[in-house]
Amino acid sequence: MDGKTNKGQIMHRKTVSAFLTFMLLASCGGLTGDRALVQGAGPDELLKLRSGPGLGFNVILGLPDGTSLNRGDCVTEVGQLWCRVSLTQAPQIAGYVSADYLSAR
Predict the structure, then answer these.
(1) Distance CA 31, CA 8 (A)
(2) Distance between CA atoms of 1 and 62, rounded to whole angstroms?
(3) Nearest alpha carbon to residue 95 among 64, 22, 34, 62
(4) Can you tell me the distance from the alpha carbon of 56 to that of 53, in angstroms, rounded to the nearest whole number?
(5) What is the DSSP letter of 101?
(6) 3-state SS record for 27-96
(7) Phi, psi (degrees; rounded to nearest 5) at 76
């Protein structure tokens, strides 16, 4: 393969990757949009940030009451409303929490 063809393929992959990333972010409803606070977990309890919308997904970390979050879209799974969130102070940490424990900021 010549260098020119290889460069074209790399450029195409980068363009496709950038486009897919943009579409994913646009479809998330803006994870940096609505703000919310964790509320109601309890003084000695943590709200579980999960890798997906439901109790069967892995726990990423626990969030104490008062944690500031960026809220994205919400989905209903088995009668429970789950919202996609990211930490306001560390937006790269994202997952799902039960909407029952979110309050408007």
Answers:
(1) 33
(2) 51
(3) 62
(4) 8
(5) G
(6) HCCCCCCEEEEECCCCCCCCEEEECCCCCCCCEEEEECCCCEEEEEEEEEECCEEEEEEEECCCCCCEEE
(7) -100, 125
Query: Would the pTM of this model clear 0.85, i.e. be above it?
Result: no
Q: Are 91 and 70 in contact (CB under 8 A)?
A: yes
Instruction: Record the tokens describing residue 24, joined without a space.
Output: 């994913």
Rounded (10°) CA dihedral 13, 19, 25, 29: -150
Residue whose pair of structure tokens reads 């990757």 in the numeric block: 17
Q: What pairs with residue 97 in β-bridges? A: 83
Torsion region of 40: left, alpha or beta (phi above 0 gives left; psi -120 to 50 gives alpha): left
pLDDT band at 43 (very low <50, low <70, confident <90, very high): confident
